[in-house]
C-alpha cells in the first residue's frame, strides 16, 4: 500500500483494492469538487439541514486528507456560491459559523499535511470574523506546497470573469496584450492549472456557475452519492473513472 495511506485505510479493504487500480503516475493534477447534497442527505435521515452541513464539513476534511495523501496537487472545493445568499438567513448563518469553526479546527489538518489554503471568491460580503480567520490560515499555510486547496466562498464564475476584466482595465492592460493566458492569470485561480477533473455529487448534472473559464477541457464526473456520504472509496472511484477517459483536447 502507498505508505502515505497507512493509518487511514486498512490493508485488504475495499479502499486498498481501489487504490491498487489507481495509476499514481497519471493522477489528475487539479480536482475540483461541487460538494452538493447536504440538505437532501439530512432530509433522508430525518435530520435538520444543518446536520447535513456538519457531516458535509467532515467529508470535506476527509477528502482533503485523501487527496493530499494520494498526491493530488490542487483541490478546489465549492463551499458557498454567490447564489447561495438566496437561502434562508438561518441556513446562511449556520454555514458561515461552521466555516469559521472549521478554519479553527481544520488548521491542524492543513499544517500536519503541509497543505496551502487559498480562498477564491468575492470575500467582501463574508462576515469579518470569518474573513480574518481565513486570512490568518492563508498566511500560516502560505509556505506549504504538498497540495493547494482552493476554497470557493461567495464564488460565482461569471462574477469572477467580470472582476478579472475590471482589474485588467484598472491596471491599464492594453487590448493587444490580452490573451487567454493573461485573462486566466487575473482570475481568482491565477497561477493554478485548470482542473483536470470536476466532480459533482448528489445526482445534479449541472455546473451551477462554477469555474466556467477554467473547465473548458475538464473531465466531468457526476455521482448520485450525496456529499456527506462521499468517502475515500468514492473519491478513488472518481479518479479511476478519470484515468479511463481519453482526453483529446480537439486533436485526433
Ligand atoms: C451543498 O449542499 C452545500 C451548499 C450548497 C452550501 P446543499 O445545501 O445544496 O444540499 P441540497 O442540494 O439542498 O441537498
Ligand atoms: C452548488 O450547489 C454550490 C455549492 C456546492 C456550494 P447548489 O446546491 O447551490 O446548486 P444548485 O442551486 O442546485 O444549482
Ligand atoms: Mg444543492
How does the SSE layout of this entry go?
Blueprint: H1 14-20, E1 30-34, H2 38-45, H3 49-70, E2 74-81, H4 89-105, H5 107-112, E3 115-120, H6 128-141, E4 147-155, H7 157-170, H8 180-186, E5 197-200, E6 219-222, H9 232-243
Parallel strand pairs: 1-2, 1-5, 2-4, 3-4, 5-6
Helix pairs in contact: 1-9, 2-3, 3-4, 4-6, 7-8
Please tell me about this protein's structure.
The protein has 252 residues and is α/β, with parallel strands linked by helices. It has a single domain, classed as 3-Layer(aba) Sandwich (Undecaprenyl pyrophosphate synthetase), CATH 3.40.1180.10. 42% of the residues lie in helices and 14% in strands. The chain is built from nine helices and six strands. The protein has a six-stranded parallel β-sheet with strand order 3-4-2-1-5-6, sandwiched between helices. Helix 1 runs parallel beside helix 9 and helix 7 packs across helix 8. It is globular. The two termini are 36 Å apart. Bound molecules: 3-methylbut-3-enyl trihydrogen diphosphate (2 copies) and magnesium ion. The site of one 3-methylbut-3-enyl trihydrogen diphosphate (IPE) has 11 residues, from helix 2.
